[in-house]
Amino acid sequence: MDEKLYRTREVAELLNISVSGVKKWIREGKIRAIRVGRFWMVPESEVRRILSSVKPNEVRAVIYARVSSHKQKKDGNLDRQVERLRSYCSAKGYRVIDVITDVASGLKEDRAGLQKLISIIEKHQADVVVVEFKDRLTRFGFEYLKRYFESHGVKVEVIEETEKGYMEELIEDFVSIVISFAGRIYGKRSQKFRKIKKVVEEVVSNDN
Fold it and tell me: What domain count does the chain have?
């Protein structure tokens, strides 16, 4: 039976590296590949060889960091968060395979970064997810998400149990909830909705 062949994009996903990285390894002879028309195809046995060469005790870590607003990102909060997580992984001897960030409320379930993280977990490309605080991953339902990750063999490590500060984020999440419910009840084009939205934003602005 003919051996299964993988395209470079598929190999990149399996090895958790870029497509350009796979092509570079092919040029350097680190990966045996077969030219099929315009494409390089990698035999399944070669993919298995590379996967088996990964150190058995090596822990593959994904860093996930999040801030709620672009203002926090601009102030350097996101970069400092990532740096703290990198230091933690270095101290634990973890190999960081990806750093995923989001600039969005912890209430949003369709965050691009979170969706990417879930995809990595489902493909069994990581051993541990490292976050600074529980609500960096999600504002509500942390234990459910943690259990889901663990069902795929991935641990979630929180380096700080109690979050200090971030009151601004809590306020933004509260505003998001109020405005979202007002929109559902009255409709986002209604006068009532615009009035509620204006009042809430003015109260928050005055408190700041």
Answer: 3
CATH number at residue 198: 1.10.287
Residue 68 annotated as catalytic: yes
Q: Do 118 and 138 share a domain, yes or no? A: yes
* 139 lies in the same domain as 171: no
CATH number, domain at 140?
Answer: 3.40.50.1390
Distances (CA, A) of 68 to 106, 153, 200, 204: 7, 29, 18, 15
Owning domain of residue 30: 5-52
Could you tell me if 95 and 154 lie in one domain?
Answer: yes
Q: Residue 162 pLDDT more than 60? A: no
pLDDT digits (tens, 9 = 90+) for 86-119: 999 998 889 999 999 999 887 788 899 999 999 9
Amino acid identity at 181: F
Residue in 146, 155, 156, 128 with CA at minimum distance from that of residue 61 = 128
Catalytic residue among 45, 53, 68, 69: 68
Distance CA 169, CA 148 (A): 26
- Give the Cβ contact number of residue 165 at 10 Å: 8
Read off the amino acid at residue 97.
I
Nearest C-alpha neighbor of 47 from the set 27, 25, 80 = 25
φ/ψ of 122, rounded to 5, equals -65, -25
- For 32, 45, 97, the CA distances from 50, given in Å and listed in that order, are 10, 9, 16
